[in-house]
Amino acid sequence: MLQWGANFSPETLNGQWWRLGTAVFLHFGVIHLTLNVWALWDGGQWVERMYGHTRFLLIFITSGIVGNLFSLTFHVVSVVSAGASGGIFGVYGALLSYLWLNRTRVPLIEFRWIFFGAAIFSLLTIVFGFLVDGIDNAAHGGGLITGLILGALLIPGDARRLSPASLAWVAGMASAALIGLLIVMPEPASIQP
Prior knowledge:
The protein is mostly helical. It has helices at 9-12, 19-22, 30-51, 53-74, 85-101, 108-131, 137-153, 164-184. Helix 3 (30-51) runs parallel beside helix 5 (85-101) and helix 5 (85-101) runs antiparallel to helix 6 (108-131).
């Protein structure tokens, strides 16, 4: 995986920044790939319809890269990491932002079904990441925060009903998530060249 471009702090921080992007498209086996494909299909079909193809791709790629940056920042030991989870959590973050900011325009039953389904999926996956070794919760959290923010900023004009209170809510939630991550994640180790 390292030779194919997985994220690994000694390499990534010593000039191979491209690993932040390539790691999004690498997976550790068929099960890892299958779970990520399913999650991306499940949330991605909604987000692509809501935001369009280009914005969807921007949300996915940017969230994946930022998730990998979080992974570099929060891991105490150098680990080889790969997977689309940061991008997928970004997609779910954008889905949550869109639904919350348009909650008065979406039928209540659909809002509850999709919003709470996406929120519970995100929460349970993060909890599962704390219980099982080898899951990169830093990438998950970084992707989710990025998706929440990009979801609010990139919302299409015909769906834009952003009041100052709505923007404050998105900024507040993203800040609270970032502070929460900083509290629960260990201090990063210094990396020796």
